[in-house]
Amino acid sequence: GIVLVAINPYEELPIYEEDAIYAYSGQNMGDMDPHIFAVAEEAYKQMARDEKNQSIIVSGESGAGKTVSAKYAMRFFTTVGGSASKTNIEAKVLASSPIMEAIGNAKTTKNDNSSRFGKYIEIGFDKKYHILGANMRTYLLEKSRVVFQAEHERNYHIFYQLCASSSLPEFKDLGLSKYWNLPV
Question: Which residues does the record give as ATP binding sites (predicted)?
């Protein structure tokens, strides 16, 4: 398949705006510069032409911009699929990120918010190739962090959030008060 190497610039760039989406929409792979929109367009065209499911795998190191690349691909699909103003799937899918990050992210020596889970986002299209909705599944990849913590690292964020709430009556039975003085 197609491989695209992208770098996270850690800032918004004009190459991801709606004008760029329309520039890549309908183009053949290789006619334009390499871009996440070129990969998304190729998957979208093959889905429509072959009437078969397509996959885009976004992989990389911590902080490489995987979530941002997935967001841009979803933005492409919602725009070219004619659903951007109707459903805003991108915003709905990404709205779940803070909850998932609390449960699946931790502080490591390289990254204060390092993801320890994989995401599988399935976007459903109708017969006219408009987005119907999306499902997201998460897979915990680093289960060892639950019982072991490396030096200078933190456990999953949810643990510290629970400790910070330990004085609330509904958390009394969890026995978290003895952990209250952990470094946050």
Answer: 60-67
Asked if 104 and 117 touch (Cβ cutoff 8 Å), the reply is yes
Rounded to 5 degrees, φ, ψ at 163 are: -60, -40
The answer to whether 67 is annotated as binding is yes
Domain spans of the chain?
A: 18-145
Q: Does 30 show up as a binding residue in the annotation?
A: no
**Residue 62, annotated as binding a ligand:** yes
CATH (residue range 18-145): 3.40.850.10
CA–CA separation, 38 vs 32, rounded Å?
A: 8
Burial class of residue 76, CB neighbours in 10 A (0-12, 13-18, 19+): buried
